[in-house]
Amino acid sequence: MHSQTMPPSGGLVLVVEDEPLIRLNAVQMMEDAGYTALEAHDAADAVRVLEARPDIRIVFTDIEMPGSMNGLRLAACIRDRWPPIEIILTSGAVIPSASAIPDGGVFVPKPYSQGQVEDALYQVAQLDHP
After folding, report:
1. What is the pLDDT of residues 71-82, one digit of tens each?
2. Which pTM was predicted?
3. Which of 13, 49, 101, 114 could form a disulfide with 105 if both were Cys (CB 3.0 to 4.6 A apart)?
4. Over the range 58-75, which residues count as b (16 or more CB within 10 Å of their CB) and which as e?
5. DSSP, res 104
6. Residue 95 belongs to domain spanning
Protein backbone atom coordinates (compact mmCIF):
# COMPACT_ATOMS: atom_id res chain seq x y z
CA MET A 1 0.00 0.00 0.00
CA HIS A 2 1.26 3.45 -0.87
CA SER A 3 -0.55 5.38 1.86
CA GLN A 4 2.56 7.44 2.64
CA THR A 5 2.26 9.06 -0.79
CA MET A 6 -1.49 9.68 -0.70
CA PRO A 7 -2.87 13.10 0.21
CA PRO A 8 -4.42 13.05 3.71
CA SER A 9 -7.96 13.63 2.44
CA GLY A 10 -8.82 11.65 -0.65
CA GLY A 11 -12.12 13.18 -1.70
CA LEU A 12 -14.89 11.74 -3.80
CA VAL A 13 -14.34 9.33 -6.72
CA LEU A 14 -16.99 8.14 -9.18
CA VAL A 15 -16.33 4.57 -10.38
CA VAL A 16 -17.91 3.84 -13.78
CA GLU A 17 -17.90 0.13 -14.63
CA ASP A 18 -20.58 -2.05 -16.23
CA GLU A 19 -19.42 -5.33 -14.62
CA PRO A 20 -20.87 -5.42 -11.07
CA LEU A 21 -18.10 -7.47 -9.44
CA ILE A 22 -15.33 -5.41 -11.03
CA ARG A 23 -17.16 -2.22 -9.98
CA LEU A 24 -17.49 -3.48 -6.41
CA ASN A 25 -13.79 -4.35 -6.33
CA ALA A 26 -12.81 -0.93 -7.74
CA VAL A 27 -14.99 0.86 -5.18
CA GLN A 28 -13.29 -1.12 -2.40
CA MET A 29 -9.86 -0.17 -3.78
CA MET A 30 -10.82 3.53 -3.78
CA GLU A 31 -12.04 3.28 -0.20
CA ASP A 32 -8.92 1.38 0.86
CA ALA A 33 -6.90 4.25 -0.65
CA GLY A 34 -8.72 6.75 1.57
CA TYR A 35 -11.33 8.01 -0.91
CA THR A 36 -15.11 7.97 -0.78
CA ALA A 37 -16.54 6.20 -3.83
CA LEU A 38 -19.80 6.47 -5.73
CA GLU A 39 -20.84 4.03 -8.46
CA ALA A 40 -22.26 4.26 -11.97
CA HIS A 41 -22.99 1.30 -14.26
CA ASP A 42 -22.52 3.13 -17.58
CA ALA A 43 -21.70 6.56 -19.02
CA ALA A 44 -25.29 7.83 -19.01
CA ASP A 45 -25.60 6.89 -15.34
CA ALA A 46 -22.25 8.62 -14.67
CA VAL A 47 -23.46 11.87 -16.27
CA ARG A 48 -26.59 11.78 -14.08
CA VAL A 49 -24.42 11.33 -10.97
CA LEU A 50 -22.02 14.10 -12.05
CA GLU A 51 -24.94 16.49 -12.62
CA ALA A 52 -26.22 15.79 -9.11
CA ARG A 53 -22.87 15.75 -7.26
CA PRO A 54 -20.64 18.80 -7.80
CA ASP A 55 -18.21 17.49 -5.15
CA ILE A 56 -16.81 14.64 -7.31
CA ARG A 57 -13.06 15.17 -7.83
CA ILE A 58 -12.04 12.08 -9.81
CA VAL A 59 -13.76 9.73 -12.28
CA PHE A 60 -12.35 6.19 -12.63
CA THR A 61 -13.95 4.73 -15.75
CA ASP A 62 -13.75 1.63 -17.87
CA ILE A 63 -13.32 2.33 -21.57
CA GLU A 64 -15.39 -0.55 -22.97
CA MET A 65 -18.99 -0.13 -21.83
CA PRO A 66 -22.40 -0.71 -23.39
CA GLY A 67 -24.60 2.20 -24.33
CA SER A 68 -24.24 5.26 -26.50
CA MET A 69 -21.01 6.45 -24.90
CA ASN A 70 -17.85 4.51 -24.07
CA GLY A 71 -15.32 5.59 -21.45
CA LEU A 72 -13.27 7.71 -23.86
CA ARG A 73 -16.36 9.64 -24.94
CA LEU A 74 -17.37 9.97 -21.28
CA ALA A 75 -13.90 11.34 -20.47
CA ALA A 76 -14.22 13.91 -23.29
CA CYS A 77 -17.65 14.89 -22.00
CA ILE A 78 -16.28 15.32 -18.47
CA ARG A 79 -13.36 17.41 -19.73
CA ASP A 80 -15.85 19.67 -21.58
CA ARG A 81 -18.53 19.98 -18.89
CA TRP A 82 -16.55 19.53 -15.67
CA PRO A 83 -12.93 20.54 -16.43
CA PRO A 84 -11.70 20.39 -12.79
CA ILE A 85 -12.56 16.67 -12.49
CA GLU A 86 -9.55 14.37 -12.92
CA ILE A 87 -9.94 11.26 -15.08
CA ILE A 88 -8.51 7.75 -14.74
CA LEU A 89 -9.29 5.36 -17.60
CA THR A 90 -9.01 1.59 -17.47
CA SER A 91 -9.47 -1.33 -19.86
CA GLY A 92 -8.50 -4.92 -20.33
CA ALA A 93 -9.21 -4.83 -24.06
CA VAL A 94 -8.06 -1.42 -25.30
CA ILE A 95 -4.90 0.59 -24.77
CA PRO A 96 -5.78 4.15 -25.78
CA SER A 97 -3.30 6.32 -27.63
CA ALA A 98 -1.88 9.24 -25.67
CA SER A 99 -3.89 11.61 -27.86
CA ALA A 100 -7.14 9.81 -26.94
CA ILE A 101 -6.62 10.39 -23.20
CA PRO A 102 -7.85 13.82 -22.06
CA ASP A 103 -5.25 16.27 -20.75
CA GLY A 104 -4.14 15.22 -17.28
CA GLY A 105 -5.82 11.82 -17.63
CA VAL A 106 -4.18 8.57 -16.58
CA PHE A 107 -4.59 5.06 -18.03
CA VAL A 108 -4.42 1.93 -15.83
CA PRO A 109 -4.58 -1.45 -17.64
CA LYS A 110 -6.79 -4.27 -16.32
CA PRO A 111 -6.32 -6.30 -14.30
CA TYR A 112 -5.07 -3.60 -11.95
CA SER A 113 -3.66 -3.93 -8.46
CA GLN A 114 -4.29 -1.80 -5.38
CA GLY A 115 -0.86 -0.26 -5.87
CA GLN A 116 -1.57 0.71 -9.48
CA VAL A 117 -4.86 2.31 -8.47
CA GLU A 118 -3.20 4.23 -5.62
CA ASP A 119 -0.42 5.39 -7.94
CA ALA A 120 -2.99 6.69 -10.45
CA LEU A 121 -4.97 8.42 -7.69
CA TYR A 122 -1.80 10.01 -6.38
CA GLN A 123 -0.80 11.13 -9.88
CA VAL A 124 -4.12 12.89 -10.57
CA ALA A 125 -4.29 14.27 -7.01
CA GLN A 126 -0.98 16.03 -7.69
CA LEU A 127 -2.71 17.91 -10.50
CA ASP A 128 -5.20 19.20 -7.90
CA HIS A 129 -2.58 19.90 -5.25
CA PRO A 130 0.74 20.99 -6.78
Report:
1. 999 999 999 999
2. 0.91
3. 101
4. bbbbbbebeeebbbbebb
5. T
6. 11-112
